[in-house]
Amino acid sequence: MEQKVFDTSRLRSTYFAQALPVVLGSVVSLIYNLADTYFIAQTGDALLVAGVSLCSPVFILLMAFGNIYAQGGSSLISRLLGKNDRAGVRRVSAFCFYAAILTGLLLAAPMLLFHRPLLTLLGASGQTLPYAMPYYCILAAGAPLVVLNFIHANLLRCEGQATLSMLGTSGGAVLNIILDPIFISLFGWGAAGAAIATLCGYLFTNLFLLVVVLRRSSCLSVDCRRAHISGDSLRQILGIGVTAAIANLAQSASLILMNQFLLPYGSEKIAALGIVLKINMVVQMVLVGFSFGGVPLFGYLYGAKDFQKLHKLLRFCLRFLCSLALGISALLFLLAPQLVRLFIDSGSIVSDGAAMLRWQTAGSPFAAVVLLLTCLFQAAGKALPALLLSLSRQGVIFIAVLAAAVFIAQYQGFLAAQLTADLLSAALALLLYRRAFGRGGGEAAG
Fold first, then answer.
1. Whole-number Cα distances in Å, 337 to 13, 195, 272, 439
2. pTM of the full predicted structure?
3. Mind listing the pLDDT tens digit for each residue in 279-295?
């Protein structure tokens, strides 16, 4: 007898039951990201803030490699569960676990060996390099922990274990928040202390979720004897996982370009951008949480070929997410100066940061459309449209818009680039949806 993973008779309640723990986990993770910036900014040293901010692309790079197996694996696992193929789920989950560990080890070596040229590429100058160096090196050494962090947090949600996944990520975040002021200020370790606290949080999350898989999961496995998959399964994992990774890599490249553009304007503008991007993550993480929270349910419905319920759920999610994005971004727009001042009380940084924050959040409703439809394509195993959207709003479209806007309007063009890229990317997302699924809501012919 087929055992159902999700209750599809009550789509909205099932969606929120899966999405809310993801959002809560994302918000807590966001809080500890903000905590790093907050406790570092409390030193009052703009160079220290700028040095740590320059390392943000490193996190995104490691996230990209983790998402190859986390999102690629969860997309395939959701569809396998829709087909009730639990043996396939065990093989895929074991493969993703060990592949993530190996990938993290392979990344750590070159990142440490070429740390100086890589930091220069990230935008470190003679002033900020001494502050960025310890943070970067510790983070690079802990690359396996960071990459592995995304695996079980995503895979557990595929079998309806969203709450336990959230508890694992939240526990790591809380530990990070506790250790930040101790390591940064009390022990006087500065940027190195922030990095060590972050890795301690990731270690806790990985161990907690591993225990959950071993004791509570009915589908997932970490048995190395099962970590072999067919060529077709590997293609499906990489087809979706690489598109998710490309989105992260494109975002990392965009951040590097933004920092490079601001370099002639001084370290204070780089510090302002670093603070603004962390605040703007409030909107982004909530939208990402609600979007990715629906992936297991999207994939399950797609695997079961229940297209009517799939598109009914999608229409509701679009209305909900766009309204939510508009409300949160309006609040951040009004409180922009006060929010930046919470981190550092510098008149120039607050002024620059408030303007940056308002422009960054203005396109959030368009970003919601892009994120949700990207998740739909990933859940359905549609690699090409997922790839195109992954390269859009913080990738190729953003980079092209940024280059053109800076050429035309210099610094003001820099401010307006993300809003323009969000609008163009949302138009592309809707066009791809029409082509992939047809006007009637079902699968497009062919």
1. 37, 28, 11, 44
2. 0.68
3. 887 788 888 888 877 87
